[in-house]
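Chapter review: from sequence to fold.
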Amino acid sequence: MDVKKAIQFMFISAFAFACMNSAVKYLVHMNAFEIVFFRSIGTLFLTFGYLYKKKIPAFGNNKKLLTLRSLVGLISMTLFFMSTKYIPIGTAVSLRYLAPIFAAIFSIFLLKDKIKHWQWLFFLISFLGVLVLKGLDTQINNYGLFLAVASAVFSGLVFITVSKIGKSEHPVVVVHFFMFISTIVGGILAINNWTNPEGWWEWLLLCSLGFFGYFGQVFMTKAFQVATTNQVAPLNYLEVIFTVLVGIFLFDEIYTLWSIVGILMIILGLVLNFRYKANTLD
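The token string follows.
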């Protein structure tokens, strides 16, 4: 195990995702499906190149589950991009991290899993963080809050479908199929509301979405490969910290005391739940 290298990989991953989030925030004047299209087609070229080089079939075997995973992922991604028009980018990212809680709840009914009593307490802490954002932060737009939480719900379903796929498909195949579906659907739905990018800068930002998204995922995977999940997973939340800082310094976003409290409560509940699960499995 190389914890130091894992931490370095997670810093790179978090920075890459924060860069992608920043580009999305800068492009909020564009239709969400147009952003989905560019986010997806950029990664699609990279995943196709990887699969071609490794001589791995690009579209897998279990196309029904791959399609389902792609559709719920597409809905989640679109809702997240839409939410960034209404709420600070750091808040949107932190709310999206509620996905593991919704995945755990769905797993009770779909996978017959059991949730322990302490986990419900940790879930409650995170949801109270959402209530703090909604009820005590007067600057939070309720519609944007709803979109971000709905994105987390569908992201939770992504966790379930990926769990059902298991090891039957190569991880890059799963991502490739998702990007393929998202490119087609995003492109078609963006046609009627297409906004031409203004100048080379917006073109560069649009093209960077897939690049940062792909390498954020790659370095996260590398981190999990060189250290234990218990050591790496809590570092996921570096993305929230980096994105909040970007929002403050680049977009002049204002995070009230209640915003910070709500975000910290969400992260605290998720980290406590993860640590508890890790300890019970040891």
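Two observations follow directly from the output. Residues 3-281 form one domain. The chain has a mean pLDDT of 90.
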